[in-house]
């Protein structure tokens, strides 16, 4: 007589893996229809660029990386269901490595946009894109770092740091650029932008700054920024000043460009900017974040530490060209 089958208690590790797989699968099912494979610069010489894009509005707007569309020219977007549409490049901003394109489609399925400011290190994320030409590829990992900076530059020699970049160990490869980084609830929380090394991918966060850049690109095809004309970096404040201001650092001016608004406002190398208007600044990213379109041509008061004295200097930013 056969022995009765004894049921074993479920293996916790197997259960955990099943739960992990279920989350990744559910995220992929929701996000994949919103991720396109982009081909840029279609013509007699082939394609000038390739990457991914994510649908953000039903009427055909997609976000991608600026370096994906750098080749310009005609373009196309193909989706996981086999549909393909011609695409117009609406605008690109190299200093944030973001671009907007628009598919000539009646309606598309937009991704649900999340808020990267709510992410935590160790949180599960899923990357979806078209690496090495393999469309609809899905990888998963965790947020391995937050608050990173990514240096960018445009063709005019202007440099900028993309702040609060998301670092992930979800595998990214060429072609993933412009694709979606999603959280476990299938919310689009980052634009995959760079492979910084083995097991190290970076994504531009979907936050208020990125949303403003995308809105400007959709509206005007470009991003207007205010320009002071300085180069600088973080410098600790003397303890008495730090205690008085309630912060430990400011932005030291390393260089003032001749003929710039900063020069006109009597800013000097060695000055430490501690506030712009009534907003405190502690690093270059704080300063550049405040140089928005509304500041162009408007008087702006900078509070600076010069030797042991706090001074108010008025500058009038111009448009960054």
Put the structure in a nutshell.
The protein has 321 residues and is α+β, with helices and mostly antiparallel strands.
Structure keywords:
321 residues; alpha+beta; Thrombin, subunit H; Pdz3 Domain; 6-stranded antiparallel barrel; 41% strand; globular
Task: Tell me about this structure.
By secondary structure, the protein is of the alpha+beta class. Among the domains are: 92 residues, Beta Barrel (Thrombin, subunit H); 94 residues, PDZ domain (Pdz3 Domain). It has a six-stranded antiparallel beta barrel with strand order 1-2-3-6-5-4. A six-stranded antiparallel beta barrel has the order 7-8-9-12-11-10. Strands 14, 15, 16, 17, 18 and 19 form a six-stranded antiparallel sheet that branches. Strand 11 and strand 12 form a beta hairpin. The longest helix is centred in the first third of the chain and has 20 residues. The mean pLDDT is 87.
The first-level CATH class of the domain at 226-319 is given as: Mainly Beta
**What proportion strand?**
35-45%
What name is given to the CATH topology of the domain at 226-319?
Pdz3 Domain
Per DSSP E runs of 2 or more residues, the count of β-strands stands at: 20
List the helices and strands and how they pair.
Layout: H1 12-31, E1 35-42, E2 49-55, E3 61-64, E4 74-78, E5 84-93, E6 98-103, E7 124-129, E8 137-153, E9 159-168, E10 180-183, E11 188-197, E12 200-205, H2 208-220, E13 226-227, E14 230-236, H3 239-245, E15 249-256, H4 261-264, E16 272-276, E17 279-280, H5 284-290, E18 300-306, E19 309-315, E20 318-319
């Amino acid at each position: 007589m056969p022995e009765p089958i004894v049921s074993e208690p479920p293996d916790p590790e197997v259960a955990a893996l099943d739960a992990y797989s279920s989350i990744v699968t559910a995220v992929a099912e929701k996000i994949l229809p919103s991720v396109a494979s982009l081909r840029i610069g279609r013509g007699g010489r082939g394609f000038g660029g390739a990457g991914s894009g994510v649908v953000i509005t039903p009427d055909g707007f997609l976000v991608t990386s600026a370096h994906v569309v750098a080749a310009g020219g005609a373009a196309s977007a193909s989706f996981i269901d086999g549909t393909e549409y011609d695409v117009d490049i609406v605008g690109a901003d190299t200093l944030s490595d973001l671009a907007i394109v628009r598919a000539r489609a009646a309606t598309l399925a937009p991704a649900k946009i999340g808020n990267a400011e709510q992410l935590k290190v160790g949180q599960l994320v899923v990357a979806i894109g078209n690496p090495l030409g393999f469309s609809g590829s899905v990888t998963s990992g965790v947020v391995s770092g937050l608050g990173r900076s990514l240096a960018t530059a445009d063709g005019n020699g202007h440099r900028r740091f993309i702040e609060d970049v998301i670092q992930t160990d979800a595998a990214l490869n060429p072609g993933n650029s412009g694709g979606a980084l999603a959280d476990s609830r299938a919310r689009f929380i980052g634009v995959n932008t760079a492979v910084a090394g083995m097991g190290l991918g970076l994504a531009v966060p979907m936050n208020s700054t990125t949303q403003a850049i995308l809105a400007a690109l959709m509206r005007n095809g470009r991003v207007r920024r205010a320009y002071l004309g300085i180069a600088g970096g973080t410098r600790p404040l003397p303890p008495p000043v730090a205690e008085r201001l309630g912060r430990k650092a400011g932005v030291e001016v390393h260089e003032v460009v001749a003929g710039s608004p900063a020069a006109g406002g009597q800013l000097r190398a060695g000055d430490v900017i501690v506030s712009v208007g009534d907003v405190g600044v502690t690093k270059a990213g704080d300063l550049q974040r405040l140089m928005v379109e509304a500041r162009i041509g408007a008087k702006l008061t900078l509070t600076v530490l010069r030797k042991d004295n706090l001074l108010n200097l008025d500058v009038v930013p111009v448009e960054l060209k």
